[in-house]
Amino acid sequence: MREEESLERQTTMDDYMKANLDWWNEATIVHSQSQGDIYELASFKAGKTKLLPLELEEVGNVSGKKLLHLQCHLLALTFLIRQLL
What we know:
By secondary structure, the protein is an all-alpha fold. It has five helices and no strands. The chain starts with a helix and ends with a helix.
């Protein structure tokens, strides 16, 4: 195999990142349209928190702080945390 052919066949990190992004975008659509509102999006949109008392206790007072929340495909939990600030 020539070097040129080998380089053409290599999968780049951009390819993996695009595949990952495409998967999460698809999962988000499926999850946001799920039957029974398992993510309680209606309650969230109404301003209600679904954080459990234990979670609130563990997080503590975060007012005035900056937080980074990773791995949240619908952003609902990230926005719930934002309500605490």
